[in-house]
Amino acid sequence: MINENAGSVRVRVPASTANLGPGFDTLGMSLSLYIWVEMRRAERTTVHFAGEGFEGIPADKRNLIYKVAQLVFEEAGESVPELEIGMRSDIPLTRGLGSSASAIIAGMAAANALIGSPLSKERLFDLATGLERHPDNVGASLFGGIIAAAWDGERADYVRIEPPQALKVLVLIPEFELATSEARAVLPQQLSIQDAVYNISRSSLLTAALFSGRLDLLASAMRDRLHQPYRAALVPGMEKILEQASDHGALGAALSGAGPTLLAFVDRNGGRHGELETFMQSVMREHGIEARALWLEPDLEGAVCETGSRSDLFPELIKGEISS
Ligand code: HSE
């Protein structure tokens, strides 16, 4: 991820969906929605936002991108105290699409590129997982594709799986926000051995099915008893959608990360995409909830440095600029 034209670097990082049903805090997949971050050395720190959706996000040294950049510099033994940062994002916030993980990876990847990429992707993964406390979203955003990962508190081991070519993704993004902390607070502290075995077997089967392209197994392999049943009360309509999505053309369905977004996998060569979208939307509406449906692709690249791209995130006067 070295930008040969250094001076300024620009990275593009995908959104992600975590868990994929049973793989709680373990499985993740990157999605074709993106955040772009540009970064360069400056005399004083400024953060520019291009586009909508940044209300309430600090535009000074409290900004997450600035903070994670400093973490990278510290780890690399470099000092770059003042930065000009520009960002644009298509990833909805607090919806279960890994927006904070994407921002962390974008800040880290840009900072690392700015100083000549001294840190490996694996080191960035460990640093990012240390912040998020689980590797599923950050791993998918960093490496692209599907990630199976385990975190021991210091190190994240992972395997990247190339998504089956036929896999296409429908996400249904409710209009309301759901904080991850809230969605984690409803989880039980203990599980029965039956439920633990239920999840281990589905998660293992799902990983193997994705690895070998056995899309016919997804409907049963994406079932979960660890988090989704407890989170159902927070996402009206979720239970019915997960139960019946396969009857309307889905290969499998799950809560995306901590929610409230719902995710369905489909075979891109199948023919019932419209029926599935209509079904999911109508269930949400039965509960009085408006939701945005998006058809996405698995992203295959993860975090990339867009070398040679013309800078468009550093106009001299973007509305919202605040200097620290
Ligand atoms: N695995 C996490 C969870 C993803 O389900 O809580 C949310 O960031």
Automatic annotation (TrEMBL):
Catalytic activity: L-homoserine + ATP = O-phospho-L-homoserine + ADP + H(+)
Keywords per UniProt: Amino-acid biosynthesis, ATP-binding, Cytoplasm, Kinase, Nucleotide-binding, Threonine biosynthesis, Transferase
Source organism, top-level taxon: Bacteria
PROSITE patterns hit by this protein: GHMP_KINASES_ATP
Localization in the cell: Cytoplasm
Enzyme class: transferase
Its EC number(s): 2.7.1.39
NCBIfam families xrefs: PRK01212.1-4, thrB
Alphabetical list of PANTHER family matching this protein: HOMOSERINE KINASE, HOMOSERINE/4-DIPHOSPHOCYTIDYL-2-C-METHYL-D-ERYTHRITOL KINASE
Function description: Catalyzes the ATP-dependent phosphorylation of L-homoserine to L-homoserine phosphate.
Full protein name: Homoserine kinase
Organism lineage: Bacteria, Bacillati, Bacillota, Bacilli, Bacillales
Gene: thrB
